[in-house]
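REQUEST ID: PR-0412
SUBMITTED BY: lab tech R.K.
PRIORITY: routine
TASK: structure prediction, single protein chain
INPUT:
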Amino acid sequence: MPSSLASVAFSLWRTGVSVFAEQETLAWEACCGNRGDTCLFIDLSVLAPMQIFPRVLSKGSMAGPAAGGFHRLRNPDSFDEVRKSGLFRSSTPCQLLSRFAIVFQDTLEAFLLAGGIRTRFPTMQQVKLASEFLFNASAETDIVDIFIGHSWSAGRWSKFLALCMYFNLDIAVKCACGTWLLVVTVLLGWGGGITILGGSCLALPCLTYLPISCFFLAFLFAHHIMGETPSVWVDRLCIHQTNPDLKAKQVAALPVFVARSRRMLILWDDTYFERLWCNLELATCARFGGAEKVEVLPVWLAPWLLTSILSLLFSVTLFDILERVFPNWGAPWIEGIANYAEVILGEKQLFVAAFRTWMMSCLVQLPTSLPCFLSFRMKLRSHQLLLDQMAAFDVRNAKCTLPADRGPIEQQMRELFKDGDVLEDQEAKATGDVDAGEVRLQRFVDVNYFRDPLQSFNLYVRGTLRDSVIAQIGDELSVPWRTCLIAILPMIFYSSVSVLGCDSGPCETSSELQGFVSVGQYMVTNSVVWVLCIAVASPLTFPITLRMLKFTFSFGDGPLQHVAAFLCCALASICNCLCSSVLGTLFGVVMVEYSVKKLLAFVVMLVVLIMQNVWLFCGHIQRRSRNEISCRCIKRQAVYEAVGGSLQAHDAT
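STATUS: complete
OUTPUT:
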């Protein structure tokens, strides 16, 4: 009976609360952005007097600071008025990435945690305090270094990793290399010679695990210890979230903020160009800074890089374990290769041992084919999607949650591109002087007079900005050589394990077994081989894998193509190891038994690999130059057609 009475009482209480809530509901907008993205509508109905507090009702989108939108955006030239009112503020990378960039998570709990409040049932006062805490953490400024543009549809963790890569990657690489150098110095100095690590189990943990651990620590947390950091503008921290009047003024001044930023960093995901507010930011930056001011950082790039590093770290770990636990584990597979190597290269154990050692590394890389396949497929598809979106860009198709906001935003963009100055300046840079035999157009008729300013912005994104993005990050098949070196950091550090660890054995024994006359010659030869393989052989795996995957998926996206693509990843790794094996073996031959023929064979192999590097890593520069030449004809043809259309329209009127 008591339990029944309690149930009835609770039902009556809940009914009364619901009726009261319908009469008097407060919707607080914990905005995840100021530009048409995800927001939280919090039910602060009269449960507050009873200390029963907000819950998330739904997730929607908003484009402006108020339900009815706003009427007018500020002109980017009106900075003095904005500065006097204290609307322009800046934050720091440390504040932005605090708590693993929790400000990018679009939940009320995350918003409160970012504001320093941890509670399950917050009051409205606590919500306001959290908002005040975040807003006051920013500072008034006249100019910011980086304006961060993003879509709230992208996940918090992808943005966190992307920003860590942007701010911390260089520091992480330096920390890893510095740690490695320090460890080598301490170990060799403490041990009393370069042979002290021969066969030691400390080589791999000290020379590989420790530097890679420092790399990841610096990658994730270096912004906390950086001295002078760039100032950043991001909507959640620099726009007040609970003061409607102040928020409305700041949102209206968004074009001013973009124009007063030295650079614009776009955290691209597949929804960025679909947001009208994002396009307004981009248009403002284009008008007042140009394409060179825009940096595009895809959010998939950091996960792809980290996956590659971890996969290779697993490979070198597996190789080292097998070498120590099962010294002859590869004999059944290597015997045939060894016999073949003896026939071609002679009966010296050096040739067989070198070829065997390098080919064994191929086998331990095969288990990483699956993560490599998944990460490379993601990279290929996401990169292609970015370029395809820009090639087919049309701002009229961008989404705006509140219809009332579309008019002011599009009007602002028309004002920015109404004169066609941006497009003309970029075309002039791309085309330069007229070619021989061409006639320079006389500007008696304004070509842009009859052109829709929004169409001018479309052409800017499809042409100038897209070319700039390709120059920054390449096309879908491009991977910068420097990025490849960072991705193979575990192999770079493991090379010192191989050299100083003397192939997991005493240095004197290893050098004698491989036919060297001294330990010094053995170590120098191994060092040079590793340097050559890391510089000209290992980086080739990445662009070759991408090309093989693209060729495979050009026949479809079915199960058969996926199996073939997976095998392509394994084949690319084997080809890389084969090239490294041949290069290393030939150099060893030259060092031990010098002859002109052997030296010539080594030089030919080295030249072939260098030419492949030039073609795969520098070829996109030549292709872009050829594309610019062809684009000149296309752009001029478009101008001719525009002139003809303008004259016809002028005559018709």
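NOTES: DSSP finds 26 helices and nine strands in the chain.
REVIEWED BY: pending
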